[in-house]
Amino acid sequence: MLAAITGALAAGSLLAGCNSSDTGAAAVQPSSAPSPSPSPSPSPRPPQALNPLTGLAPAPTGSVVVIKVDNGGLARPYQRGLDRAAVVYEELVEAGETRLAAVYTDGSSGEVGPVRSVRESDIELLREYGTVPVAFSGGNSGVKATFHRAVRAGFLLDASYDALPGAYRLGERRKDARNFFVRPSVVAKARPGAAPRDVGLHFAPLPAGTGTPAAAAKALFSPYVTVTVTYVPETGRWAIAQNNREMPGVGPANVIVQQVPIRMSEYVDVLGNRTPYTVSTGTGPVTVLRNGVAVTGTWRRPTAKDATHYLDAGGNDIPLKPGPTWILLLPRGRPLSLS
Q1: Residues 165-210 pLDDT 10s
Q2: Alpha-carbon Rg for the chain in angstroms
Q3: pLDDT at 269
Q4: Residues of the chain with CATH 3.50.90.10
Q5: Picking from 16-30, 102-116, 134-148, which range would have the lowest pLDDT averaged per residue?
Q6: What is the pLDDT of residue 268?
Q7: Is residue 126 classed exposed, middle or buried when 0-12, 13-18 and 19+ CB atoms within 10 A define those classes?
Q8: What architecture (CATH level 2) is domain 65-190?
Q9: DSSP, res 266
Q10: What are the strands of the beta sheet with 245-246, ordered from one edge?
């Protein structure tokens, strides 16, 4: 009997041991799904490069092209392509008239014109853009010789009618001249030059309380030319009028009235009128118009190879609205009125 009892106890212990071993194995090897890995945060997109002449994307990589455009009274009905320019300069020429230097960066295939002659002061004015092609037609022989010296020095590229006659189209004839037109894309292909770079235009929001309200401005270049700019709230742009006649399609985001010294050069036009030289280096008063506001300050450009900066009273760049800009090179001392 003792042996039977001992065997029964041994068998029970063995059974208990087997059950205990199975339970422990289940405890140390649970069946569960793996935890999901956290998703990586997306990398921030790098800021898109902007056109330094408009503050808009994308940044162009082709050549800047400058085209001299006639702004005489008889030429204005034929003007085209000025609405596509990134920057337009208006400068004084002979007999109190003005001429335009239109700067293009988009490789536009549309025609621009009427194309007219270059001026000696354009060499100084345009050097801040680098070695870029300048399209023009005709001119004083002495001025052209001066321009060609600048080309040989590497300051600019000759894209004139004389150099590229096949690039130009002869258009309508008018009473005082022949109309020539040219396409920026054709000029850029024939005379590729420097890509757009910083020429001092600073694009940024206008801090609240900056400047004074200005719905319009009037600049008197001479007794014969008055330029009026009027803010259009619906578009956020400025309408430009020459002698009270609005220029169709033209609407820059900014208008800069840069008051500059004028001296007489040694050259004359075909009628014997002395050619004024617009001095674009140095310093002087400036009025920047944007968003129906006028901000006054000082322009500064130490040398012809330097950018032109438009500075407020604290010496900071006056912020411009992204978009095209017109720069009126108003002779110092001529009237400028705001309203």
Answers
A1: 999 999 988 988 889 999 999 999 999 999 999 999 999 999 999 9
A2: 35
A3: 84
A4: 65-190, 212-338
A5: 16-30
A6: 87
A7: buried
A8: 3-Layer(bba) Sandwich (3.50)
A9: E
A10: 245-246, 237-242, 225-232, 216-222, 336-338
List C-alpha distances in Å: 337 to 94, 173, 287, 290: 24, 37, 11, 16
- 8-state DSSP, 112: B
Compute the distance between CA of residue 291 and CA of residue 141 in angstroms, rounded to an integer: 43
User: Is the pTM higher than 0.85?
Assistant: yes
| DSSP notation for 158-222 | E-STTT-GGGEEEEEE-SS-EEEEE-HHHHHHHS--PPP--SS--B-PPPTT-SEE-SEEEEEEE
The pLDDT of residue 32 is above 80: no
Q: What is the pLDDT of residues 56-70, one digit of tens each?
A: 999 998 999 999 999
Pick the CATH number of 212-338 from 3.30.200.20, 3.50.90.10, 3.30.390.30, 1.10.3290.10: 3.50.90.10
Residue whose entry in the numeric block shows the structure tokens 């455009």? 69
Beta strands at 98-104 and 237-242: parallel, antiparallel or unpaired: unpaired
Q: At 201, list the tokens.
A: 């235009």
What does the pLDDT look like over 34-86, one tens digit per residue? 555 666 666 677 778 999 999 999 999 899 999 999 999 999 999 999 999 99
Alpha carbon distance 296, 235 (integer Å): 23
Spacing of C-alpha 45 from chain mean position: 23
Q: Are residues 330 and 257 in contact, defined by beta-carbon separation less than 8 angstroms?
A: yes
